[in-house]
Specification:
This protein has helices spanning 38-44, 47-50, 86-92, 111-124, 137-149, 163-171, 183-197, 210-224, 241-256, 276-282, 309-318, 328-342, 348-362; strands at 4-9, 15-16, 32-36, 82-84, 96-101, 129-133, 152-158, 175-179, 200-201, 232-236, 265-271, 322-326, 371-376. The protein has 388 residues and is an alpha/beta fold. The chain has three domains: 4-71; 82-107 and 213-382, Rossmann fold (3-Layer(aba) Sandwich), CATH 3.40.50.1100; 111-201, Rossmann fold. The strands form three sheets. Strands 4-5-13-10-11-12 form a six-stranded mixed sheet, with helices on both faces. Strands 8-7-6-9 form a four-stranded parallel sheet, with helices on both faces. Helix 6 links the parallel strand 7 and strand 8. Bound molecules: pyridoxal-5'-phosphate (PLP). Pyridoxal-5'-phosphate binds at residues 109, 111, 136-138, 204, 236-242, 300-301, 347, 349, 377-378.
């Protein structure tokens, strides 16, 4: 049983049959999102039943796009622990701090969630070769899932990416193209090759199914908090699939009757060296401008232009959330604090959420007694050069 019905353009509302590969909307170029028959799901699918299932994203399989279970490509992704950070609470004099520890996913980051669904769909659609522009974790995850599915992977990486990511992709048998510049430069070359060789492009929001894997973070948080939505979620934002995906999950869960109308205040954290969403949020804009000269140690956040910028900005405002920029120095300090005090060795992107938390506490934007979740999106082990 599965409740996936069609794809819908977020911009113009046009519907598409999901029986062949789609990227963005052929009419207006907007991102496509998977839609489900939630009316019917509401009658059949009970949250108590979900709680008895396997600890992976596939516990929500009726609400994921993959139709045939033999096409599921799984390495054990998802259902990561939501850890009560008791020692950090004491250190920071705060009552309810949780860390959603995504470093415990396959390939050490939350990117495995999105790649599990994207590659499973590629398999279901009969695709043979997949391609991605990525600064690191998305490339590692795609390469791993492509290997597990028996597909050929092509990854386009900035030439100054940490060698740890290249090592991983190589081990998984991907073909690596090192590109001068940053992720947006990689995307240009990758999309030319995609057209030339007819490969499947798995770029953020240009492919509709990564978002579905990412949305499971929202489902898990609700379930792990006993279906009581937290007050604040702090999320390190690059392309924004996590933020957009979780927001979609809350909406779906309300339609399923699993949660009520309450939403967390969503907080975007970006590094000061690349903070287009923070800037646009503060200036009250609906779209973000391209960020020139993007530079940061948090490579996953070095995204100067995001396809879903307007979606993220809408979510931040609708949720009464905010956006915070933190320096690389603040990121390193906070990451070290999380490791020393709480025993979680986060990636810099994950550490950035703690740096943002400290700032928002100082401003009293977060009040004591509120329940706050920090997202550690990956492991610190892939950044040995940063921790010297
Ligand atoms: C990709 C990445 C991010 C940003 O995620 P988006 O969902 O694209 O905003 C954050 N942290 C890490 C470790 C990443 O690899």
């Amino acid at each position: 049983m599965n409740f996936f019905t069609h794809l819908e353009c977020v911009k113009c509302g046009e519907r598409f049959e999901p029986d062949k590969p789609w990227h963005t909307c052929p009419k207006c170029n907007g991102p496509l999102m998977a839609r489900y028959d939630l009316e019917r799901a509401r009658q059949i699918l009970k949250r108590e039943e979900i709680s008895r299932r396997e600890a992976s994203i596939w516990r929500y399989h009726e609400l994921l796009p993959v139709q045939r279970s033999e096409n599921r490509v799984s390495l054990g992704e998802g259902f990561t622990p939501l850890i009560r950070a008791k020692k950090l609470e004491k250190e920071l004099d705060f009552s309810y701090l949780f860390i959603k520890d995504e470093s415990q996913n396959p390939t050490g980051s939350f990117k495995s969630r999105g790649q599990a669904t994207a590659i499973s769909m590629a398999l279901e659609l009969g695709i043979k070769e997949v391609s991605i522009p990525s600064a690191g974790n998305a490339a590692s995850a795609m390469s791993a899932y492509a290997a597990a599915a028996g597909l050929k992977a092509h990854v386009y990486m900035p030439e100054d990416s940490p060698t740890t990511f290249m090592t991983e992709c190589k081990a998984f048998g991907a073909r690596i193209y090192l590109i001068k510049g940053i992720i947006t430069d990689c995307a240009k070359v990758a999309s030319e090759d995609v057209k030339k060789y007819g490969r499947y492009d798995v770029s953020t929001l240009k492919e509709p199914y990564r978002l579905e894997g990412k949305k499971t973070m929202g489902y898990e948080i609700a379930e792990q908090m006993n279906w009581e939505i937290p007050d604040v979620i702090i999320y390190p934002t690059g392309g924004g699939t996590g933020l957009i995906g979780m927001w979609k999950a809350f909406d779906e869960m309300e339609k399923l009757g699993w949660i009520g109308r309450k939403r967390p205040r969503m907080v975007t954290v970006q590094p000061a060296g690349c903070a287009p969403i923070v800037k646009a949020f503060k200036e009250g804009k609906d779209h973000a401008e391209f960020w020139e000269g993007a530079q940061t140690i948090a490579y996953g956040l070095r995204v100067p232009a995001a396809v879903g910028d307007y979606l993220m900005l809408r979510i931040l405002r609708e949720s009464k959330g905010t956006a915070v920029a933190v320096s690389d120095e603040q990121i390193i300090e906070a990451t070290k604090l999380m490791a020393k005090v709480q025993g979680i060795f986060a990636c810099p992107e994950g550490g950035a959420t703690l740096a943002a938390f400290k700032i928002l506490r100082e401003q009293n934007w977060i009040k004591d007694g509120e329940r706050v979740i920090l997202f550690n999106t990956g492991t610190g082990l892939k950044y040995p050069h940063v921790w010297k």
